[in-house]
Automatic annotation (TrEMBL):
InterPro entries: Acetyltransferase_Butenolide, Acyl_CoA_acyltransferase, GNAT_dom. PROSITE patterns: GNAT. This is GNAT family N-acetyltransferase. Signal peptide: none annotated. It comes from Brachybacterium alimentarium. The lineage of its organism: Bacteria, Bacillati, Actinomycetota, Actinomycetes, Micrococcales.
Length: 141
């Protein structure tokens, strides 16, 4: 384990409401923090929620949704701005998918922000327009 992640505990857990709101708020995800009850329902309905903590403080979270057999989606991965680029995001994604290693389709949809392509490619994901054989993705919002 790299020294920067020493003391950071990553594992499955349902975090409490206020610390969850604080974390999502620190990342600026107002669509979640505006609807706290919906956010907690979303976490409760996820196939797996993992957190990262250091000295008890919630530093990050990732969650997977899906059927657990043929398809799983990484729905959120977020790391507090104070704790980035020290391997916490990678550990969260690895822990979130750990029980689903044999699931054929592992997918996610995310904003086209700088750094995210590098992050997901470093974890072995391929952007859909680079995939062979060719794939399409669709969204309805
Ligand atoms: C994306 C996010 C989860 C990454 O978390 P993190 O803990 O900083 O990521 P890691 O330290 O595990 O990074 C692993 C690798 O990904 C790549 N990477 C991560 N962030 C990057 C960035 N901003 N720019 C370029 N590469 C990046 C690097 O290759 C990095 O390895 P390195 O630091 O040894 O070079 C974090 O930036 C975040 O919470 N962003 C806001 C929320 C978000 O956009 N989530 C994703 C959409 S759901």
């Amino acid at each position: 384990m790299p020294p920067a992640t020493e003391g950071t505990v990553v594992g499955p857990e349902m975090p409490a409401l206020q610390e969850t709101l604080d974390l999502y708020g620190a990342v600026g995800w107002g669509a979640y923090t505006d609807e706290p009850a919906t956010l907690m329902r979303a976490l409760a309905g996820s196939a797996r929620v993992v957190t990262a903590r250091r000295d008890g403080r919630l530093l990050g979270l990732a969650r997977v949704i899906g059927d657990g057999a043929t398809i799983v989606y990484l729905q959120d991965v977020l790391v507090h701005p104070d704790a980035r680029r020290s391997g916490v995001g990678r550990r969260l994604v690895d822990a979130a998918f750990a029980p689903f290693a044999d699931v054929r389709q592992q997918v996610l949809l995310t904003d086209a922000e700088p750094g995210q392509r590098a992050f997901y490619e470093s974890l072995g994901f391929t952007e859909v327009h680079d995939h062979e054989p060719e794939l399409r993705s669709f969204v309805r919002q």
